[in-house]
Amino acid sequence: MAYDVAAVRAHFPALREGAAHFDGPGGAQVPDVVAEAVRNTLTSAISNRGSVTASERRAEEVVRTARRTMAEFLNAGSIVFGRSMTQLTYDFARTLSKNWRPGDEIIVTRMDHDANIRPWVQAAEAARATVRWAPFDRTTGELPVESVTKLLSDRTRVVAITAASNLLGTRPNVAEIARAAHEMAAFVYVDGVHYTPHVPVDVEALDADFFVCSPYKFLGPHLGVLAAAPELLETLRPDKLLPSSNAVPERFELGTLPYELLAGTTAAVEFMRSLEGLEEYELGLREKMESGLRELGARIYSKASSRTPTVLFSVDGLDPAEVYRRLGAEGVNAPAGHFYALECSRWLGLGDRGAVRAGIGPYTDESDVDRLLKAVAKLR
């Protein structure tokens, strides 16, 4: 069955403004069903979770449904909610590092978003642990398995790796890296923020100990999600308030959860599940966009064999910020920068300025791609 992009686009009120959105990697537009779920929860009778009053039971059901829905969506055991992926990673870096000793080792990659680098680097500094850096191939945009595995030792405590680069789209072989890390008894912490909107996620198949993502990247509200086995979470002791629950996963959730955002997350997952043929559709548009950009002489940095529908490019003789501005004037939202993948941008030789990033999403259609290419052509 052909992907019905017109039917999908009808659910996005934001598209009525007329812009062509290639900025989804920074935060997707939201379908009407998600907004309605948020609104309905905010305007319902709801209170702190419990089992006595109707409002307590309603809050409890919202949380339970969101946990169950996310666990099924990710094929994971237990779900922890937080304000953002960044906040969750800082919390878990602090918790895990309680057991680190001088001489222990942490592996991070040059490809990752800073949210999966800096929390580990800073926790390592506090524990006097050693940080090992895994480089990627600048020419191909690939992160070879051996680039990470050759750094492993019996002192490795955590391997922090992306499932898909938010800058290049590259999808490393996380499962193979995880298997090697587990042979050294190291934990594997996977940033799935850019991966989850485009690829069916199976946390168990990835062999990730921790997998984090952000619903607002897959059509939901601003929130962070961490998935892990409940047995693993039981072994961790985060700093928390004394009266708050010590049950898993509640012990990792600091304060009252945002019930309206959990309801919106449930709605976003249900909407994503309805999008049959999405991955193939997005791949086709990416190939059309890349082919057109090459014909126009743009320099493309996204070259990995396995990647998301995301393209990082530049136009010779023009500052990326200027390209961004001029595309925006044509109603094409394709921003420029390093997008918090600072190490990745610097490793590519782009410095802190980065380049222009165009990401395909569920609501992107061929006319959007045509508008992007026409706007780039006008830059020459």
Automatic annotation (TrEMBL):
Domain Aminotransferase class V span(s) in chain numbering: 22-372
InterPro entries per the UniProt record, alphabetical: Aminotrans_V_dom, Cys_dSase-rel, PyrdxlP-dep_Trfase, PyrdxlP-dep_Trfase_major, PyrdxlP-dep_Trfase_small
SUPFAM superfamilies: PLP-dependent transferases
Domain of life assignment: Bacteria
Coiled coil: none
PANTHER family for this protein: CYSTEINE DESULFURASE, PYRIDOXAL PHOSPHATE (PLP)-DEPENDENT ASPARTATE AMINOTRANSFERASE SUPERFAMILY
Name of this protein: Cysteine desulfurase-like protein
